[in-house]
Amino acid sequence: MAKITASVFTSHVPAIGAALDLGKTHEPYWQPLFQGYEYGKQWMKDNKPDVIFLVYNDHATAFSLDIIPTFAIGTAEQFQPADEGWGPRPVPVVKGHPDLASHIAQSVIQQDFDLTIVNKMDVDHGLTVPLSLMCGQPSADHFEWPCPVIPFAVNVVQYPVPSGQRCFNLGKAIRKAIETYDEDINVHIWGTGGMSHQLQGARAGLINKEFDRVFMDKLINDPQAAADISHIDYVREAGSEGIELVMWLIARGAMNDVHGGKAPLLKQRFYHVPASNTAVGHAILENQF
What we know:
This protein has ten helices and ten strands. With 289 residues, the chain is an alpha/beta fold. The protein has a single domain, classed as LigB-like (Protocatechuate 4,5-dioxygenase, Chain B, 3-Layer(aba) Sandwich), CATH 3.40.830. The strands form two sheets. It has an eight-stranded mixed sheet with strand order 6-3-7-2-8-1-10-9, sandwiched between helices. Helix 1 (14-21) crosses helix 5 (125-135), helix 4 crosses helix 6 and helix 6 (164-179) packs parallel to helix 10 (246-252). The two termini are 14 Å apart.
């Protein structure tokens, strides 16, 4: 049977993608941030999964105010990098895993979570920046990501958005779905977005280091406490875009300890300010069997 061996958590700041694509990673402003992902890149090489289930949010690229799915799973063979207004990022096409994605959709919907099934969509920086950070920039002679990716988009842009508890419970359902897939494959589940930031209004540029660090403490050691954080607390303490952190709870809800197993092994924890106008968080948890 398939099993989840690890969860990865990371911000997906668009300026990080630009810094990578424009060769700015060694500039003094960016160097400390990218150094924080050196461990993760080596860890990915040493712990290469068969499939990545990647939770992210679309930034009005595949979806718009015309159609806003709360939870959308990509079931296509492949997903093109999106043009977000300045051309697509120079990164490989994302290859999907239609069989596993369809199985997850079937299982999760039967567990009473309503998913939108998407057979065609482009993927924006919310998905490609985490891949670049953890997998490195693919070279010209090996221009592909290391494994298939199942995109899972969550609406955290237009209210109403799902609660942290709803996302945490969804992670539990996704775990059950993956573990009932009849193939012996290794799956990573990634939660992306956040941390504290606000992009508009009187509080534009807000960063709350204390909230971010407490959130990471809870996520790692007491995920139910993290799931209990309310929408108003996210907005008040982490800014209007801090609500993206609920996506991390989907990945955390799929880990063994939430289901009565052993506590995960913390392999990496990293926090950096600033990156563009946001805080950046990153963590890696390995399941213990």
